[in-house]
Structures are given as C-alpha cells and as structure tokens.
Amino acid sequence: MAKKPKKQHQSGGTPATVALTAAGTDFTLHAYEHDPASASYGEEAAEALGVSPDRVFKTLVADVDGRLTVAVVPVAGSLDLKALASAVGGKRAALADPAAAERTTGYVLGGISPLGQRKRLPTVLDASARDHGTVCVSAGRRGLEVELSPADLASLTGAVFAAIGRG
User: Is 154 helix (H, G, I), strand (E, B) or coil?
Assistant: First the structure.
C-alpha cells in the first residue's frame, strides 16, 4: 500500500510534484520569492527557507563519456567531476551544455529537478544526503523546493549514493 502524501501541490504542479504525488511519496513543498539577481539559486533557496546549505541540494547535469548524467550535491559545496565519472563507471566528466541539460530534463537552469525529468538519466546522489532525515531539491522551477527523505529521492530517481561533493 502506497504512503499517503503529507503535503502536496494541488494545482499547477510541476513534473516533479506530479511524479511525487503519483508515487505516493511523503514530501513538503516550499515556495519562496526568487530574486533574478541572486548569484546562486541553491544558496538563495537555503537562505529563503531557513535551512542549512548542507541540506539543500542542487541538481547538475554532466556529460560522462558522452552520456548525460545527473549529479545531486549540497549547495554548500561543488561537484567533483572525477568522482562523478567514477561513480557511474566512466573516465571523464564535464558539466553538460546548458541547452542540452534543459532540453533533456525539460526544466530551465536554476529549476532543474532530479525528479520528473523528461528523460530518465543515470543519477548520483552525494553520500552526505544520508546524514539528514530530509533534504531539499528543486521542485522544477526557480523559487520552489521539495523536501523529502534521501531514500525516497534515491528510489524515485534510481540514484546511487557516492561521495561526489566537495567542500
């Protein structure tokens, strides 16, 4: 029997919230006023939500040996591209072309969610997510975050856990 969602976005949902609702996953939606002048979408989200930046995760799309791959790392740090490549059995990784990331995921930069993407990509979730009862990731648009358990995030995205974040 599927879990009943605690809170969900009732109208105008994003593909991420639709996927969460369809899966019966417990989640909490957090909206805030996005400032277009903000230098970092993730740090802006952490500050607006009053959440530690090590619990707010950014979604980055990388090219690993010619294959797009999703990396989910804390906004407080950066992505270790070599560790990401290793986590998926690759040799080389580089951040993907922004247009390719948007086209493949169906989301705009700053609002790319690891959930509900247009095309399911291999996904790696930084191992530090396991240190928290819940983490926040983009819910599919700037100014909207979803909070859920790391285990549910990994399950819904098919993610593997690996140490891919730095600092």
Answer: helix
Grouping H, G, I as helix, E, B as strand and the rest as coil, residue 50 is coil
Name the β-bridge partners of 162.
Answer: 126
Instruction: From 128, 131, 119, select the one nearest 158 (Cα to Cα).
Output: 119
Q: How far apart are CA 73 and CA 138, in angstroms?
A: 12
Q: What is the spatial distance between Cα 150 and Cα 61, in angstroms, rounded to a whole number?
A: 19
Phi then psi for 73, rounded to 5 degrees? -130, 155
Residue 165 scores a pLDDT above 60: yes
- 10 Å CB burial of residue 70 (0-12, 13-18, 19+) is buried
* 97-144: pLDDT as tens digits: 999 999 999 999 989 999 999 999 999 999 999 999 999 999 999 999
pLDDT in tens, 44-81: 999 999 999 999 999 999 999 999 999 999 999 999 99
Q: What is the crossing angle of helices 15-23 and 150-157, to 10°?
A: 100
Tell me how far apart the alpha carbons of residues 3 and 121 are, in angstroms, rounded to a whole number.
Answer: 25
**Structure tokens of 80?**
């270790």
